[in-house]
Write a structure and sequence with these properties.
Strand content: under 5%
Number of helices: 4
Structural class: mainly alpha
Largest sheet: 2 strands, antiparallel
Number of domains: 1
Number of strands: 2
Helix content: over 70%
Radius of gyration: 19 Å
Shape: elongated
Strand order of the largest sheet: 1-2
Length: 144
């Protein structure tokens, strides 16, 4: 397959990951019981931090939304890379390698601190980026 196709697929998978993260992770409902009580405590206990009143819930929600923003931006960037890789394949391969390594690390963190499904998405994105790099290298070798 052509590197553009791999990158377009990576883009769509990243955008799906962003949407699922937002729906389930950021705005998902906590079940009743002890977990709900703990979340309520995170929301209720305010403290001063760097001149502002915050809760642990503010940090949780803010970081969740930040991840959503970065996943969305990366999905858009991967789509744009799909056009650029046709003429800038050699220059984009190291950038794609950095993103792939980042997604492997992201998968490890997801597996350790969250659950399996996000790590599957992240490993899939990394694999798609590696496939884009490999096919770009093959196309460059065939052209020369």
């Amino acid at each position: 397959m052509k590197p553009t196709v791999w990158l377009r697929i990576a883009s769509v998978v990243t955008l799906v990951h962003s949407a699922l993260h937002t729906i389930g992770g950021v705005f998902g409902k906590m079940p009743a019981g002890p977990a709900g009580v703990a979340v309520a405590a995170m929301q209720a206990n305010h403290f001063r931090f760097m001149g502002s009143m915050r809760t642990m819930w503010d940090f949780h929600l803010g970081m969740g939304l930040a991840v959503t923003i970065f996943l969305t931006v990366e999905g858009i960037v991967f789509w744009q890379f799909g056009s650029l890789i046709k003429r800038e394949g050699a220059a984009l391969r190291p950038v794609l390698a950095v993103f792939a390594a980042g997604y492997i690390a992201f998968a490890a963190v997801s597996l350790l601190y969250f659950f399996t499904l996000p790590s599957i998405f992240e490993l899939l994105i990394a694999a798609l980026l590696v496939m884009a790099m490999a096919s770009a290298r093959r196309e460059a070798a065939a052209a020369s």
